[in-house]
Specification:
Elements lengths: L6 H20 L14 H4 L3 E11 L10 H17 L4 E7 L4 H17 L7 E7 L9 E11 L25 H10 L17 H14 L5
Parallel strand pairs: 2-3
Antiparallel strand pairs: 1-4, 2-4
InterPro entries: Pilus_biogenesis_CpaD-related, Pilus_CpaD
Protein name: Pilus assembly protein CpaD
Keywords: Signal
């Protein structure tokens, strides 16, 4: 027959059990640590915002007298991309010293017109030139503007032998780089990584419809 524990012994046992449970809660591992892998690919390959050049090359054949419909469509797409990403100037870079330089200079007016019709202001267009003496007759007209974009670091770095360095069970150098780069490329507005956008006004009619539908779910069938 077991005798009941004295009051002091029972109280001490209760305190010990409570302290054990609290210690277990306090020793919860960090969620950024997976088992025995202390490194995080988001720290090694962070997504950062930086200013990069957005470019498009327009091929120019010697003797062309006008832009093709496909070229105009591409230029309009470039202008739409500029309107969504930047308010900077758009550079029209003409080849200099190539066999098709005269043709490129002739087509620049057509390019300017296409850009302005697509919504780019005339004072945002800047004409420059570049040395294309080594291009022969294949020097393109390049359009460019600068914009803030999200991007990760370069991938494909393998400084260590994965066969040899496996004892510590850590992530390898290139782990997660492609995922971070793909995520950065899919972000339509890089500023979403810095600050959330402002909330739009509530659609009262839509809210009333959703509430009515929610209430109807709980109604018993007739």
């Amino acid at each position: 027959m077991h005798r009941p524990l004295p009051m002091r012994a029972a109280l001490a046992a209760t305190l010990i059990l409570s302290a054990t449970l609290l210690a277990a809660c306090g020793a919860r591992p960090d969620r950024s640590t997976t088992a025995s892998i202390p490194d995080d690919y988001r720290t090694r390959h962070p997504i950062v915002l930086s200013e990069t050049a957005q470019t498009m090359d327009i091929p120019v054949a010697t003797g062309d007298r006008a832009l093709t419909m496909a070229m105009r469509d591409n230029i309009r797409g470039f202008a739409a991309d500029h309107a969504a990403k930047s308010r900077s100037a758009v550079q029209i870079m003409l080849p200099r010293g190539s066999a098709n330089a005269a043709t490129a200079n002739y087509l620049r007016k057509d390019i300017r017109t296409t850009l302005t019709v697509a919504g780019i202001k005339r004072d945002q267009l800047i004409e420059t030139s570049y040395d294309a003496s080594g291009y022969g007759a294949n020097a393109p007209i390049r359009l460019a503007f600068f914009a803030i974009t999200a991007q990760a670091g370069p991938c494909g770095e393998w400084p260590e032998d994965l066969v040899v360095n496996t004892m510590e069970n850590k992530n390898y150098q290139n782990f997660g780089c492609a995922s971070q780069a793909n995520l950065a490329a899919q972000i339509a507005n890089p500023m979403d990584l810095v600050q959330p956008r402002g909330m739009t006004e509530i659609d009262a009619a839509r809210r009333s419809t959703v509430i009515d539908d929610y209430r109807d779910i709980g109604q018993p069938p007739l």
